[in-house]
Amino acid sequence: MKRDPGAGIPSARVEGYTGIREFYSPKYLTTEPAPGADRDVRTTLYWNPNVTIDPRTKQAVISFYNNDVTDAFRVVIQGMTADGKIAYLEEKME
Q1: Taking the mean position of all CA atoms in its chain, how far away is CA 3?
Q2: Partners of 70 in the beta sheet?
Q3: Which residues on neighbouring strands pair with residue 28, listed in sequence order?
């Protein structure tokens, strides 16, 4: 990318990558909804970029709150193995 002297740091948009978004995860302390609370219609129910698998059991336990509209889940797991291989799994759970 050519830039004019003094024009600042060059930038470019790279296709295939999205910008950083904050993930909202409610923390429900009681089973009663708060007065005036809206329905929970989140499309992403759980996001954790640092899930670690137990090396002995080869399992990870996660816990999350469901929304008010979901009856089936699309689970997408993306990661990298200890030896640098890409891991990807997508499953639908009903």
Answers
A1: 36
A2: none
A3: none
Cα–Cα distance measured from residue 26 to residue 46, given in angstroms and rounded to the nearest whole number: 10
Q: What is the pTM of this model?
A: 0.60
Contact 87, 78 (CB under 8 A): yes
DSSP 9: S
Structural element, H or E, at residue 25: none
- DSSP-derived 3-state class of residue 88: strand
Least confident stretch, 11-20, 46-55, 69-78: 11-20
H or E stretch at 80: strand 73-80
H helix or E strand, kind and range, residue 76: strand 73-80
3-state secondary structure at position 91? strand
Residue 4: pLDDT above 70? no
pLDDT value at residue 2: 61
Contact 52, 58 (CB under 8 A): no
